[in-house]
Design goal:
Blueprint lengths: L5 H10 L19 E9 L6 E7 L4 E5 L5 E6 L4 E6 L4 E5 L19 E10 L2 E10 L2 E7 L5 E7 L5 E9 L15 E4 L22
Parallel strand pairs: 6-12
Antiparallel strand pairs: 1-2, 1-11, 2-3, 3-4, 4-5, 5-6, 7-8, 8-9, 9-10, 10-11
């Protein structure tokens, strides 16, 4: 596996490994409507920082911003692609997706082999959510998910490699589709496997989602 952009690495740490979900009694991590969430990273390499995520629900796109970094990332779940926008260089870099050598997993779901257990109801950021605990071999964690698929808190991983995030604000306002695509006038490029984008990966966070 390759290094992940900083914001995605924080999310992947909280989810453990990242693969599509299998059909079983488990939560959906795909919001049913547009939403923007501000998180506090409470454990992992980016602990103490703010992480912002916005979902364009109909298009199944996720934008991740880690304030203070050189750029931002969009995961296009429908197209199975990831692109990184570097504002200073005015470049949009498409990253190779997938779990193979040189690729990036899409950290939107826990692994399909994870087993889930309901653990009650909680409130996070003023919203009710169901607490789910999961285990997948040495990877363990929990996530509190709203009925409409918004993750409000998540922690997990393997020992010291674990991470955690917790929502501090949730806004269900409609999202602007333009924020989920490269800005007009930016140069676009595809990144071959094994090559870092111009300026390196934002935040320099090492890969947090090991492949299998």
């Amino acid at each position: 596996m390759r290094a992940l952009p900083a914001g995605l690495a924080a999310l992947a740490l909280a989810f453990g490994l990242a693969r599509p979900a299998a059909a079983q009694d488990r939560p959906s991590f795909q919001p049913a409507r547009d939403v923007a969430i501000a998180y506090r990273v409470t454990a992992g390499p980016a602990a103490g920082r703010e992480l912002r995520m916005a979902w364009l629900a109909a298009a199944r796109k996720l934008r991740v911003d880690l304030p203070g970094e050189a750029g931002w990332t969009v995961v296009d779940q429908a197209a199975q692609r990831v692109f990184l926008v570097l504002d200073q260089q005015r470049v949009a870099v498409e990253l190779p997706a997938g779990g193979g050598p040189g690729g990036f997993n899409l950290p939107l779901q826990p692994p399909d082999s994870a087993r889930f257990t309901r653990a009650g109801q909680e409130r996070v950021a003023g919203l009710p959510c169901t607490l789910w605990r999961y285990a997948d071999g040495p990877t363990q964690g929990e996530a509190c998910i709203t009925a409409d698929g918004v993750m409000l808190r998540s922690r997990g991983g393997q020992g010291e490699r674990g991470g955690a995030v917790e929502a501090v604000a949730v806004d269900y306002a409609p999202q602007d589709a333009a924020r989920f695509q490269p800005p007009a006038g930016y140069r676009t490029m595809q990144l071959p496997a094994g090559v870092l984008p111009p300026g390196g990966m934002p935040g320099g966070v090492p890969g947090a989602s090991p492949g299998r």
